[in-house]
Design goal:
The chain is an alpha+beta fold. About 45% of the residues lie in helices and about 15% in strands. Helix 2 packs across helix 5 (about 105-115) and helix 7 packs across helix 8 (about 225-230). The termini are close together.
């Protein structure tokens, strides 16, 4: 099934609408729930934990069908240090060995779970990364609460100064480094440089992926992947012509990147919106083939080949 031009434009108009006041209120209640849980938990008194939204809602790249909210609870009194992609086994062992305080990653996760259960009777702590708090109809959305610690990267030839992010220690003994503040700053800059089109194009690609995966055309992909793809589209492409022209141009550019026969293809140079991590590589939840299939399916579905 391919959309006609009028159907495509109608969907674009619907997908790019900002959240309503009611949606914003629901999200505010989700943040307030987590903030209250942290403030009311006696073991957290005086720790100065930082509670902030992260992900698509914080970056204004959400779509209405993706109404769940990610909230980080950052422990700033203890930090970790390592490469931009994470710490090696020996490095992590030495840092843990140097620390004699109470707040290990396991202890922090345990206490955060207890705190959340004081404000919600339905907290799911079985997930590997985040605590899942189901939505309350008419009140707040599904919420993922991520316990994390402050993280500093060691200077490299690419980044001459420390970068500050967060590190999440997962239940399976691994860890994930995030650079959400850099993502936020870079996203705002790119949005301004593209006449405020960047985030609208991201929303549309996320909505297209939702429909394609629901129809079984492609597998379900993390919504962050769509933001990553559009971040790597040149600004002049996103500024070109009408919004329809810009989105079409974005798919053309990405199609070239995933064409192994094109001399212009540079997929290994693509980065996440934080500007720090490579888009493709070990540990990522997506592959170049996922990108190729998504772009090809989006092109056909939106009727650009008709």
């Amino acid at each position: 099934m391919s959309l006609t031009p009028s159907q495509r434009i109608e969907k674009f108009s619907r997908w790019t609408k900002p959240p309503t006041l009611a949606e914003e209120a629901r999200l505010d209640r989700a943040k307030r729930m987590v903030t209250n849980a942290v403030k009311q938990h006696p073991p957290f008194a005086g720790l100065g934990l930082v509670v902030e939204p992260k992900g698509s809602w914080a970056n204004n790249t959400n779509v209405s069908s993706d109404s769940d909210m990610d909230i980080k609870v950052e422990f700033t009194r203890r930090s970790f240090r390592g490469a931009v992609t994470g710490m090696g086994f020996v490095d992590l062992y030495l840092q843990n060995n140097e620390y004699s305080g109470r707040w290990t990653p396991e202890e922090f996760r345990s206490e955060l779970g207890i705190a959340l259960k004081t404000v919600s009777t339905n907290v799911d702590s079985s997930h590997n990364v985040a605590f899942y708090v189901p939505s309350v109809p008419g009140s707040r959305p599904d919420t993922d609460v991520v316990p994390c610690f402050t993280y500093f990267s060691r200077p490299t030839t690419l980044f001459g100064v420390d970068q500050q992010g967060t590190v999440v220690f997962t239940k399976d003994g691994k860890h994930i480094v995030n650079w959400s503040q850099q993502q936020l700053v870079n996203g705002r800059e790119k949005n301004n440089d593209t006449g405020r089109r960047y985030k609208y194009v991201v929303r549309v690609l996320k909505a297209v992926e939702n429909e394609l995966s629901a129809m079984g055309v492609i597998k379900d992909l993390p919504s962050y992947f769509m933001e990553c793809l559009i971040y790597n589209v040149p600004n002049d492409v996103l500024r070109t012509g009408t919004f329809d022209d810009a989105f079409r141009g974005a798919l053309i550019h990405l199609g070239v990147q995933f064409n192994p026969w094109s001399w212009q293809a540079r997929p290994d140079d693509m980065v996440e919106p934080n500007g720090i991590k490579k888009l493709f590589g070990s540990g990522q939840k997506w592959t170049k083939d996922d990108g190729r299939k998504l772009v090809a399916a989006a092109w056909d579905y939106l009727g650009y080949g008709s």
